[in-house]
Write a structure and sequence with these properties.
single chain, 328 residues, alpha+beta, Thrombin, subunit H, six-stranded antiparallel barrel, globular, binds 2-acetamido-2-deoxy-beta-D-glucopyranose, Peptidase_S1_PA_chymotrypsin, signal, Peptidase_S1_PA, Peptidase S1 domain-containing protein
């Protein structure tokens, strides 16, 4: 039995410029959290945060099928092969998919295809947020695919309860800041365990785990030494309470962290968010951060994605003019 409230990861000598922010030589310390934690912030402070990429792996997740999630898709950086696998995406409307923006920043449109309902879909365009967030931790990217013959476009409905009312995630703290009876799960394409060799032919399988969505998860668990900026939406395989009372709880030893992983409300089957970031530390199962598709930025980009889809002109070239600021 441990009494842990606060994981302090001492990122000695790192300044957050690279993915090695949480490399193995950093020291890890657990300390008890001493005072009550105020999870509300009048202002976000990301001066000392680093939102590292997810490594697309799972621990103790259960297999899922495309029949259960017919709107799910795999993003691959090839026109003909199923590798290299890049991330998970979700179809939200005919020919429009969303994923973590950071997944597609480095891809070339013409090499990228989506594998959706066993069909390969060529990509017409990416829409990336014009006003990006730090390391794209809160950025959702759109993938508009070409109009290829396709049957039914299975889509997932978006979380539409609240739009953002502030820039500091207080709307999220208000909605997901107390104990909840509702449940969530995350689903996406993952390898089993973290692969130390990033071979392109790693096997990615559709898997899911139940998760807890709460404002305090990253706010409290990622209180790094001098780094207190993780007041952002996160999920984890167990509650803070379980973690505090018994960190050996099997629920706390599951993990699912894939770029674009779909966070679903199991009651409504609506998409609450897309997994975007999370630190890795050996033998620790840490929360994963996600982006909620309810920002003005998101809706603006959505309008843009629809215009690109509906455009009949020559492909390429003209798309920028379809997307100017404040389309909504
Ligand atoms: C959120 O904003 C979008 C776009 O402006 C709008 O269509 C939608 O109805 C809003 N939802 C809520 C719950 O206010």
């Amino acid at each position: 039995m441990h009494n842990l409230l606060c994981v302090v990861l001492l990122a000695a000598g790192t300044s957050g410029h690279s993915d090695s922010w949480l490399s193995d030589d950093n020291e890890l310390q657990f300390i008890e959290h001493l005072s009550s934690f105020n999870t509300r912030r009048s202002q976000l402070n990301f001066d000392q945060t680093y939102f590292s990429s997810l490594d697309n792996y799972q621990v103790e997740a259960v297999p899922a099928t495309e029949a259960q999630y017919p709107w799910i898709a795999r993003v691959v950086h090839s026109r003909t092969l199923d590798i290299p696998h890049m991330c998970t995406a979700a179809c939200i409307e005919e020919r429009i998919f969303i994923t973590a923006a950071r997944c597609i920043y480095s891809l070339k449109v013409h090499y990228t295809t989506l594998i959706y309902q066993h069909t390969r879909l060529p990509v017409r365009a990416f829409v990336l947020p014009s006003k990006g967030t730090k390391q794209a931790f809160d950025d959702i990217g759109f993938i508009v695919v070409e109009d290829v013959p396709h049957g039914h476009w299975a889509t997932v409905k978006l979380y539409d309860e609240t739009n953002r009312t502030d820039d500091g995630f207080n709307w999220f703290a208000d909605r997901f800041g107390s104990a909840q009876s509702e449940s969530h799960k995350v689903v996406g394409y993952a390898t089993k365990g973290k692969q130390s060799i990033q071979a392109p032919d790693r096997l990615f399988e559709l898997t899911e785990i139940p998760v807890v969505v709460h404002m305090d998860l990253c706010t409290i668990l990622f209180t790094f030494d001098l780094m207190k900026g993780f007041h952002v939406p996160c999920y984890h395989s167990c509650t803070l309470e379980q973690f505090k009372t018994n960190s050996d709880d099997p629920d706390c030893k599951k993990y699912h962290g894939v770029e674009g992983g779909a966070v679903l409300n199991t009651k409504t089957n609506k998409l609450l968010g897309l997994a975007t970031w999370g630190p890795y530390f050996p033998k620790l199962y840490l929360p994963v951060g996600f982006a909620v598709p309810n920002s003005a930025n998101f809706f603006n980009d959505y309008v843009c994605a629809r215009r690109i889809r509906d455009d009949d002109g020559e492909p390429g070239m003209s798309y920028q003019r379809l997307c100017v600021d404040d389309l909504t």
